[in-house]
Amino acid sequence: MSRHVAIVTDSTAYLPPPTMERHSIIAVPLTVVLGDQALDEGTEISARSLAQALQKRRSVTTSRPSPELFAETYRRVAESGATGIVSLHLSAEFSGTYDAAVLAAREAPVPVRVVDTGMVAMALGFCALAAAESAEAGGTVDEAVTAAEKRAAGTSAFFYVDTLDYLRRGGRIGAAQALFGSALAVKPLLQLDGGRIEMLEKVRTASRAIARLEEIVAERAGAAPVDIAVHHLAAPERASALADRLRDRVPGLADLHVSEVGAVIGAHTGPGLLGVVVSPR
């Protein structure tokens, strides 16, 4: 068995499967509860099925992985030869996933560092990649954590949603902000700030909001080497068009990922989501 530092994350990192396999990153799934069915994100429910359920106004909620699932994952990783584990997760403001991982880490057979990245989607994914690259270069658990935290500190995430209703229902944004946006019929631009979803700007139309999103991303990216991820839910044409424009506008673009978010994030944003993660190298 090879001895190494292993990287664990959760299913909201939305890393492409080939990338996870290449870097041996393991994702613990969150759960989507659709009606009376509890389904693992990424394996038992697709983003498209989730979008259809939301459009039909079916009841959709989400829940964290259990501490037992994390404990089982840590045991399996240790048995593969890992001498330490870095477990990187979405913002604790959004989910109890971090708390479940902390509970499991106390009983793990090898040292586990659990990190609340304050991120989600590929903002979390880029942190996991940074940690994995550090580990592959022979880095210790502490060095892999430092690499992830450095990547998180420089990463920004912005997104547009057609309505704030889904975020309000899930308690991810204040009711006052949601009602204010609805009353004015504005299209909101949001950002991740301190692990929370905060209002960035209010724009009158969807087309203007997406154009402004593009401007903000281009400004934040600058000319330095940067990775970008464009996320969407049930809006592939909109995401592809934005990605094409960013290729032309960002001179330092290194990698550009375009992907549909999974069911957990989709449940809280609704169809029409368009998000962009900007992560300097």
- What characterizes the major β-sheet? 6 strands, mixed
| Quaternary state of the chains | single chain
Shape category: globular
User: Pairing-aware structural class of the strands and helices?
Assistant: alpha/beta
Which percent range describes the beta-strand content? 25-35%
Task: Report the radius of gyration as a whole number of Å.
Answer: 18 Å
Relative helix content: 40-55%
Distance between the termini: 32 Å
Strand order of the largest sheet: 10-9-8-13-11-12
Can you describe this structure?
This protein has eleven helices and 13 strands. It is of the alpha/beta class. The mean pLDDT is 89.
Q: Could you list some keywords that capture this structure?
A:
single chain, 281 residues, alpha/beta, 42% helix, 28% strand, globular
Write a compact overview of the structure shown.
With 281 residues, the protein is of the alpha/beta class. The protein contains eleven helices and 13 strands. Helices cover 42% and strands 28% of the residues.
What is the element layout, followed by pairings?
Layout lengths: L3 E7 L6 H7 L1 E4 L2 E4 L2 E4 L6 H9 L4 E4 L3 H13 L2 E8 L7 H9 L6 E5 L5 H15 L4 H14 L1 E5 L4 H5 L5 H10 L2 E7 L2 E8 L2 H16 L4 E7 L3 H14 L3 E8 L2 H7 L4 E7 L1
Parallel strand pairs: 1-2, 1-6, 6-7, 11-12
Antiparallel strand pairs: 3-4, 3-5, 8-9, 8-13, 9-10, 11-13
Helix pairs in contact: 3-4, 5-6, 9-10
